[in-house]
Amino acid sequence: MYLLNRQQRHVVNYSWMIVSLLLVAFLPFFLFLGLYLKSFLLLHDYSLVDLIFSREWRPSNGKFGFYPFIVGSVWVTLVAMIITAPICLLTAIYVTQYTKKYFLRIMHPAIDILAGIPSVVYGLWGILVVVPFISRYLGPWLEIKTMGYSILAASLVLSIMIIPFVLNILIEIFKSIPTELKEAALSLGATQWQTVKSVLLRKAMPGIIAAFGFGLARAFGETMAVLMVVGNVVRLPKSLFDPGYTLPALIANNYGEMMSIPRYDSALMFAALLLLIVSLFFNLVMHFFIVKYNKY
Amino acid sequence: MSDNAKISIRDLNVYAGKSQILKDVNIEIPKNKITVILGPSGCGKTTLLKCLNRLTDLYPELRVTGEIMIDDNNILQAREDIYKLRQQMGLLSQRPYPLPMTIYNNIAYALKLRGIKKRREIQKLALHYLQQASLWDEVRTRLREPASRLSIGQQQRLCLARGLAVNPEIILADEPTSALDPISSQFIEETFLKLKNEYTIVLVTHVLRQAKRIADNVVFMYLGEVIEQGSVEEVFGNPRMEKTKQYLGGTFN
After folding, report:
1. Which member of A63, A105, A149, A192 has the greatest number of CB atoms within 10 A?
2. Which residues in chain A are contacts of B162 at CB distance < 8 A?
3. Which residues fall within 8 angstroms of residue A26, CB to CB, at 6 or more apart?
């Protein structure tokens, strides 16, 4: 009936599982190793501190300063998170605690549609709507000269992109908190808001941090939509209305043409390595907070 | 309302959409006694309990009609201060749900909601309520630990202490021992017996022996209706209704 007997099948299945596990476990390591080897040329010629903190980017003259890109990425990501976090948190609390159930049934498909739109479409929307809005209305209104392509435009587009993802996770987290816990707080005479504040938020804290961390990682790595509206100017942005450049945009914009200059190639690999390390760092910090809050 | 009735439920009906969960419920719950509400699962016991502290408000699909008088005060009327009202009652649910904070803060939170602000007083009262729930000796050295680290039985007693900390007159308990081991259950039962001099206790259960052990009064419910109510001697010793006899005799179907 079978080619192998029960014992043999067990061994085959078991080894297959081990192999898959090892594959998944070592994938990040291989990624890291590959990027490191490819960027070795650059790391060999320049000191790490110089690469990270130097501001000059002139590959043809052999100047590779990544500081503007790092600062650009951090600005865009942070501002996007500052916009995203309160919106998502308040929306999730409102739709799970204050509205009737059918409201959530209407919301869910809307959120899923937003989550499914390709990033290039968000980028186009940014060019057609957000950039002109900033250059024609917001900038003049605040009496700031801006061409619209800016850190702020990128952050706005980015936050609209990650809101559905973060919101979906947050809604699931709030839904998973047992009603009885809410009833326990209410039965002590707490108001609805007191219950949300001191019981639900506290209980959900590890999940909330994980959701924000997920959003942060997505925002940091997002390439297409950001490079379409951020301006792609290698300069330290002085305000949100200045254009900037991000690490993923640097790689995507230059990958085709740099084949001829070995150091340029190496520099882009180093940018990818930086991206990987920073996301790793985000993950670690997130993990630390999840463990810290998970004890309740 | 008879003279010593603490809670008097009159013509209480609860509808969920087209189905009716409670039908014309009339119950008198005497003061400083343990009243056990007995009945098979799904007979509306829990809903009845939730009506008593208006947790039914959380479920907009429920429609509640009738009167629930507590000390001549109809609590189903909307103008009642619902937060004050809920503080008249301590709730103990089927499984313990400690708040996501330390053991001490679980009690302190309830005390703060009651309006007590002085730290000294909070400490004093927390000790008092933990003792009242027979938990103090087990947690005195670990007050700053998360409440979730306690065993289930200890958690349930912590929830009881928390419920007592709002200074209620009534204790509502919804099958409080169904998730506990026999020793923890016994702890809870003994605590109830001690507490009934000061509190009016309403206990929902489907455990006949538990009802027999600690009840003063018994209300037997079936499919949302009160079948029979009276003192424990009357209902257990000499049940009048056929359904009650069957349930007590274990031949229920």
Report:
1. A149
2. 184, 188
3. none
